[in-house]
Amino acid sequence: MTETAQITQVVDGVHFVSTALANWVVLTDGDDVALVDCGYPVHLPLVRASVRAAVGHDAPVGTLLVTHAHADHIGPAARLVAEDGTQVRCSPTELAGVRREEKYQVDIGDIARHPRLSVLRWTARAVRAGGLRDVAVAAATVLDGPEVIAGHRVEPLDIPGHTPGHLAYWLPQVRVLVTGDALVTGHPLLPDRGPQMLHPMFHQDLDRATKSLERFVGLDARWVLPGHGDLLCVGPDAPQITTAQMSPEVLSPSAPVPPLSISSLDEAVRQAGS
Ligand SMILES: [Zn+2]
Asked: What is the rounded distance in angstroms from the CA atom of residue 81 to the CA atom of residue 138?
């Protein structure tokens, strides 16, 4: 299976990478590189290509910030640790999940209760992408407060529900909110684009996940970078933004396009929680 991705520089040093199955974010400050999430195991070559595109040449990943321990968000993490000595950071509550001492993820039994063709197709694709592989990261450590990472002030926000220790990351200096799977704008199993929650079967505690969205209310975000779906611009005038199409070998810039947009983050939260 050949996976491709799109990479968009959202602001200086913040690059949003989207694939059909999962998204991640590259933070850069010169050669200092951090990721938020890193896709499925199969995405490692695209993760490397996205760092190359963001930095201008190959560079090691210093830090991987984890939103949550699912295989589509930490797939190549153990490889990054082995090859780059990457520091893998997550919430205290998610640590056992990242180390795979605990596991909260949709299983074949959950999927079998939704025997729609689209679900079966997505499942087959997720399994091919490495969704059932062991993605444990024994060396993971905790991030339990704001830190400067790859040149950006990063504030972890507790957004429990999708998993018990799910984090979003707020970068106040550049008004970027990375939402992981707490708030998405699309997914192969969702019919529409726009701010919303994932299919209920994916959440460990749906009520808690819905309530957690309130954590986003009042944040002065300009950009929302979700774990699945398109980049979302918040505010009245979404700028045109240039996205490059990326394979592990080729980077080809495409024409500027307006991103998905919404007038306020509170409206996005209302729409998602309804
Ligand atoms: Zn996900």
From this structure: 10
Residue 69 CA to ligand 1 centre (angstroms): 9
191-207 pLDDT, tens digit per residue, is 899 999 998 889 999 99
Percent of the chain with pLDDT over 70: 95
Q: Given a cut of 70, is residue 107 above it in pLDDT?
A: no
The DSSP secondary-structure symbol of 13 reads: T
Full domain range(s) for residue 134? 5-273
CA distances from residue 255 to 6, 24, 77, 141, 194 in whole angstroms, order as listed: 12, 22, 32, 40, 22
pLDDT tens digits for range 118-130:
888 888 888 888 8
Q: What's the CATH number where 165 sits? A: 3.60.15.10
The rounded Å distance from CA 46 to ligand 1 centre is 17
Find out whether 171 and 58 touch, Cβ atoms under 8 Å. no
User: Residue 195: which of 236, 164, 233 has the closest Cα?
Assistant: 233
**For residue 14, what is the enclosing H or E element?**
strand 14-18
Q: How far is the CA of 72 from the centre of ligand 1 (A)?
A: 5
Average pLDDT estimate for 218-239: 95
Going from the Cα of 180 to the center of ligand 1, the distance in angstroms, rounded, reads 7
Domain count for the chain, please give it: 1
Mean pLDDT of 149-170: 97
Distance from the alpha carbon of residue 11 to the mean position of ligand 1, in angstroms: 24
Instruction: Please indicate, yes or no, whether the overall pTM of this predicted structure exceeds 0.85.
Output: yes
How many other C-beta atoms are found inside a 10 Å radius of the C-beta of residue 236?
A: 8
What's the CA-to-centroid distance between 89 and ligand 1, angstroms? 17
Q: Please tell me the total number of residues recorded for the chain in this structure.
A: 274
Phi, psi (deg, nearest 5) at residue 52? -60, -45
